[in-house]
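TA notes, week 10

Several of you asked for a full example with nothing omitted. So below is the full record: structure tokens for the whole chain, then the designed sequence directly under it. When grading your own attempts, check the secondary structure regions first.
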């Protein structure tokens, strides 16, 4: 396997993981609180690699929860063709951004870091492998996001009939906890989505070494409050 393919897949998985932990569970739903240093690192990574303000990502996601499976939902496969949601997540996100506050200015720092990262990879791997890495990363990352938005709203069990989405337990592992999509919509501020949630052990480990604070309940129905030494942003939706 070309090294560009391997690195692209690893990069996509890491970015999806950071999106889920930081932009989704921490910023969008405040399921836990991160230490400022870790939050700053994840914030810079997200801006450099994903290319958008993570708080803007969180705001778009909260639109999805607020208007789930209605015409105002940014990416419902019950309102739009499922193929469009599966393959067009980047476009649908760009459209939904118009309904939320504008991105914070990217700043020179983000552009400098991005240029340095690209230049470093080109110097070590060569331009052709970096191009392969970029394409694989893009397809894999957007594919994971598209699968979460599509499958989770079309198939499975509905243990919470009043909430959107469906649960397919085994899909929680490849979809980073989103096999329990109906359960997530019912309890969006829960740090754990379900029994097979692969993110949960990482959160427990992070809490054990003091990188984050989970709060007193494992499946809270409301987000944790703020703390002077901890970072939390967003609102529950």
């Amino acid at each position: 396997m070309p090294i560009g393919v391997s690195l692209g897949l690893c990069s996509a998985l890491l970015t999806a993981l950071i999106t889920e932990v930081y932009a989704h569970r921490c910023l969008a739903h405040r399921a836990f609180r991160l230490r400022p240093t870790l939050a700053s690192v994840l914030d810079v990574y997200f801006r450099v690699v994903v290319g958008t303000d993570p708080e803007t990502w969180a705001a778009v996601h909260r639109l999805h929860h607020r208007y789930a499976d209605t015409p105002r939902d940014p990416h419902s496969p019950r309102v739009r063709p499922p193929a469009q949601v599966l393959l067009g997540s980047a476009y649908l996100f760009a459209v939904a951004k118009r309904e939320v506050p504008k991105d914070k200015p990217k700043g020179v720092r983000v552009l400098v870091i991005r240029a340095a990262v690209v230049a470093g990879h080109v110097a070590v791997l060569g331009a052709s492998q970096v191009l392969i890495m970029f394409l694989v990363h893009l397809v894999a990352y957007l594919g994971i996001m598209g699968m979460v938005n599509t499958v989770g709203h079309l198939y499975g069990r509905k243990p919470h009939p009043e909430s959107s989405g469906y649960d397919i337990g085994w899909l929680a592992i490849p979809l980073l906890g989103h096999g329990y999509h109906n359960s997530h919509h019912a309890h969006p501020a829960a740090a754990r989505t379900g029994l097979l949630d692969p993110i949960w052990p990482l959160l427990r480990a992070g809490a054990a070494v003091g990188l984050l604070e989970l709060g007193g309940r494992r499946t809270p129905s409301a987000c944790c409050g703020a703390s002077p030494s901890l970072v939390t942003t967003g609102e529950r939706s």
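The chain has one domain: 3-213. Use that as a sanity check on your answer.
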